Amino acid sequence: MAVGEMATEQESTRRRGPGRRREASTLRVWVLAFLGVFLLGAGWSLATPYDGQPDELQHVIRAYGVVDGQINAGPANSPVRTAKSLVPEGKACFRWHLDKTGDCQAEPGSVPAEQHIKIHEGSGASGYDPSYYLYVGPVIHLWPNMTGVVLARLLTAAEMSALIASAVAVAWSSRRGRWLLGGIMVGVTPVAASLLGAVNPAGVEIAAALAFWVCVLDLFSPDAPPRKWVAMTAAWSGAVFAVTRGFGFGWMGLAVLVCALTINWAKIKELWASVPVRWAVGIIGAACCLAVAWDMSAGANYPLTANTTSKTSLPQIIIQELWVRIPFYLDGTARQVSYGDIPIPTVVTYVWLAGVGFFIVGGMILGNWRERLQIAAVAVGAIAILAVSDINAVRQGMWFSQGRYALPLLVGAPMLGAAVMGRTGVLTPRVNTQALRCLAVGLLPVHLLVLAVTMVRFERGFPTNGVLAVNPFRGSWTPPAGAELPVILLCLGLLLIGWLMWRGVPEEPQDLSDAPTRRLRTAAV
């Protein structure tokens, strides 16, 4: 082989080698992130009784009905055909009754004959889009008991874990450094993590939003060409985002509009020239059309905009929003698990908001005026939408909004801040590594605290005399697989996630790889 040919072959190998190593590294990260998040979900799936997660009974009934043929069962609380075993004796007995433990309700399937008896039961989710329920419903239909419920929870955890792991993989391989990893970490709040172990589409929507935000920020990056696999991940997460819940396509549209504030025509042309991006746009557009068609055909699940005169004046409602409801929303994003009635320590919200604030403040300080506008638009806009929904709902005699409803949009605020911190280059990789490690140490133990308090609540209750139990391994109600296994699984998941965060960011070495090739070329000449 001539020296010139050797030089050409070595140069080709050199170019392929780092790319293959990066791909292998990214795949390993995806697998580790999936396992870590899934173990969190497995812990939560085994930690709570049936309907211990928000509205789980309503969603289980809906899932059974969809698989049984009731694709559109009507608006909220319409009767749904389901197995009698899924509506156990004592249902909803512990909702907002902290002195009641999980054993005040019979376990679904405890009377085997009831699994084969069909009844009609109202479901608050009867008008929801059927896509999520077609995914988890078959195991509930096959096993209309606690086994089917736990399997449906694990399927939910698997879907959420795949979406979050994809977000982590994109952030890990981003040319802006790994600041987005921190944005993802603060986006997976304890409330979002608890939904990993729930039969509820809200968690899937939040996970899809995380993945979609990361993909759009990567694709819109001005200093990197669009990557095929990132575009396909955007297509998948965007389609799930659009159809899973009623306003998903609205949250997604707002996310795209906000990200587009800093994009120029040259980047738009570059994106449109990419075939994978065009496919992604088509897939997401088709999903949005399906979501809109479903919403129009099914109608509103709750009549929040009906023309009913409110008994409370508008100024009083606004005062209530500013004084009470906005703090309630913030609590709802971080610590209000289950039905929001578990007395999780308030410090959880403060600690989590500190992590979120780190990225928001960092983005505001380092960003330009457009990037500051993006962050402010997401944070203020999400809260405003919750407030407007509440103001309309008061006319129907109820406060409706909860903080977790806006998480699909709110997670974008720290994401945008993290993207700015990676773009400017002011902060070194060493600072990035230190920040990720501090977040791991400060935030990951919070997940264990929230799980432990939740387990105590269902195992022993919180008596009205103020004497609180603190042992999550003993009580009158016992989790399906014992009290120890959920804690062990969650700790293993936290260790995997913590290890990924601890890996940090490699320092940028000086690229001297062309030197041997230059010498060979000189010799060839």
Automatic annotation (TrEMBL):
<keyword id="KW-1133">Transmembrane helix</keyword>
<feature type="transmembrane region" description="Helical">
    <location>
        <begin position="438"/>
        <end position="458"/>
    </location>
</feature>
<feature type="transmembrane region" description="Helical">
    <location>
        <begin position="277"/>
        <end position="294"/>
    </location>
</feature>
<keyword id="KW-0812">Transmembrane</keyword>
<feature type="transmembrane region" description="Helical">
    <location>
        <begin position="405"/>
        <end position="426"/>
    </location>
</feature>
<dbReference type="InterPro" id="IPR018674">
    <property type="entry name" value="DUF2142_membrane"/>
</dbReference>
<feature type="transmembrane region" description="Helical">
    <location>
        <begin position="249"/>
        <end position="265"/>
    </location>
</feature>
<protein>
    <recommendedName>
        <fullName>DUF2142 domain-containing protein</fullName>
    </recommendedName>
</protein>
<feature type="transmembrane region" description="Helical">
    <location>
        <begin position="150"/>
        <end position="172"/>
    </location>
</feature>
<feature type="transmembrane region" description="Helical">
    <location>
        <begin position="29"/>
        <end position="47"/>
    </location>
</feature>
<feature type="region of interest" description="Disordered">
    <location>
        <begin position="1"/>
        <end position="20"/>
    </location>
</feature>
<feature type="transmembrane region" description="Helical">
    <location>
        <begin position="373"/>
        <end position="393"/>
    </location>
</feature>
<feature type="transmembrane region" description="Helical">
    <location>
        <begin position="179"/>
        <end position="196"/>
    </location>
</feature>
<feature type="transmembrane region" description="Helical">
    <location>
        <begin position="347"/>
        <end position="366"/>
    </location>
</feature>
<keyword id="KW-0472">Membrane</keyword>
<feature type="transmembrane region" description="Helical">
    <location>
        <begin position="485"/>
        <end position="502"/>
    </location>
</feature>
<dbReference type="Pfam" id="PF09913">
    <property type="entry name" value="DUF2142"/>
</dbReference>
